[in-house]
Amino acid sequence: MSRLRFGLERLVLRGLHFRLLLALGIVLTVALIGGSLAMLLGSGFSDFSDAAWWAFLRLTDPGYLGEDEGASLRVVSVVVTILGYLIFLGLLIAILTQWLDETVSRLQAGLTPIAVSGHVVILGWTERTPTIVYELLGTRNRLQRFLEQHDKRELKVVILAEHVDEALAQELREQLGSLWSDRRVLLRSGTPLRRDHLERVAYRDAAVLILPGAEFIERNPEIVDAETIKTLVAISTFARSAGTVPPPVVAELCHGERANVARRAYAGVSEIVATDDMMSRLLAQSLHQPGLCSVFSELLTLNKGNTIYVRNVDELAGARFGDARARVADGIPIGRISGADRQLTLNPDPNIELRQGDLLVFIARSYHACAPGPEIRHPGLRSSAAPSPPHPVIERAHRLLILGWSRKLPTLLRELAGYGEDVFEIDVVSRTTLSEREQLLARQGIRPSARVRHIELGFTAPGVLERLDPQRYDQILVLASELLAETDQADATTVFTYQVLTGLLPEDGPRPQLLIELQHAENLELFPTDQDVIVSPLLVSYLLAQVSLRHELAAVYEELCRPWGAQILLYRIDEYMSTDKPACFGDLEMAAAGRGEIALGLRHGPNELRLNPGRDFTWTPATTDHAVVLTRYAEQPEPQSGD
After folding, report:
1. Which residues contact 542 (CB under 8 A, 6 or more apart)?
2. How far, in Å, CA of 527 to CA of 524, rounded?
3. What is the SS3 assignment for 6?
4. How many CB atoms neighbour CB 546 within 10 A?
5. Distance of alpha carbon 267 from alpha carbon 258, whole angstroms
6. What pTM did the predictor assign?
7. Distance (Å, whole) CA 618 – CA 544
8. What are the tens digits of pLDDT across the range 55-106?
9. Which residues fall within 8 angstroms of residue 529, CB to CB, at 6 or more apart?
10. Beta 583-584 vs 618-619: how paired, if at all?
């Protein structure tokens, strides 16, 4: 009996055809038994085949019951008909329903290969993946040019995730909102380390591959970076074995020192974005230059004011870079990418000659705003001057309180030390143990410094923030803490901490500058509009999405985030022009050009940022206003030894 059960089990599990075969066998068996009983009852059948056919008809169709005569034959007929309902129809419906469910589940699991080309493939699912897709689909002009370049009418995004189910698809639908379309966004199960899984997403025919990096709570980013590099090697190996070159890739790493290894690992064109390093630099620059984070937030947010564009302007060939601003009314040229060696220079010499094939880098509201038009005379833009001083002079050390711990903190401390040993005195407060901090800092080659004090405390506990006396600090940075299991919990702690701090700090008079890091953009509305807030995952998603559409942007953003080279700074407006009398932005442009800078906009008072306001924008400068300028340092500073 056990052998029979085992045999039936193996037969059922072998698939649809064998289940149908089993059902057919049962039907035939019932028909043969019913025919045999009818023959034994002497119902007038000429041979056994007629009796079996009689039973089969009753088994499949109850309408034949009215033709039977005799009580015994009717009993057999009713039993056979009931068995037909239970076995033939019930079993058949069950088998087909199960097969249909399995087919739908298989389709939902994304196990079938796709048949598209010129698409974007995201290799891996993280919390930022929906935001990356949103940035790709929501981009306007840049997306259109990307499609024209690949001769496509609409963008298709394919996501390769380890496990695809209806819950994952529903999460994607909710986050994309009106941008969701099952024709444009496809989900497939698999890992980029397997050739057959990569073939599911047609990786060799893709326009670009995107490799997102570590999740927010990942405490070992070096392991994630190693896996990313391993994936790059696997894709290159699979493509070479197929006799092709792998498509361009945009890969996210945590730390930039592994970027050269990643580039060597990939056989095709690669753009490596060291996101933890870049976010740490943005935080450091925002601490060193209060108000700067609003500039980067605008430049790195989808369809919000101005952003950075790269455009070919062969019609300006032969002209000087300083002439470009006079030919572009609605965009500000900030750099040049040489057509010969693709070398990027931000804030170049205004007298440098533009050549055929060169690309210009602009800050503008749209790609079309960067188009050259008739020349507008503006002589101040042609002047050339020496680079500005490295940084605004700081008369005393800034006392900085950092609340929370994340894997970006060691890099942040190193970046802050790069501004000079006497610029910041730092207290770092977190529940992360001191021994763990020492290990993480030593792993990145950061030695202890007398300017950095580590305090092991849970700052959300009652009374802790009061004892820290936040009013005695010049600046307070609230980091999204990785000690919490989910980003929602991290943001909840950040909001709570902010509310406690605002209750402790005076409403009027001097108070520390607060800089907040969030994980979810929807929580921005919980803070006042004048509060400096950086949503790190949103900025990272924008970087990955936009670099995948225009690769040259990677070098631009990397340059702007360095603590040397081209820098966006805020200077007091009275360093450029008189206050308390009307002026136009064109006046500020001329004054900045005389100092070897490019005026990008102005910060009117403590809250209102105006990037690229237009040459004719007129206002009355006040002593609280700041000019937003792009300057350039002559040399990379010597590395600092400690933090």
Report:
1. 135, 300, 301, 302
2. 6
3. helix
4. 24
5. 16
6. 0.80
7. 36
8. 776 666 665 655 666 666 667 767 777 776 666 667 777 777 777 766 666 6
9. 607
10. antiparallel
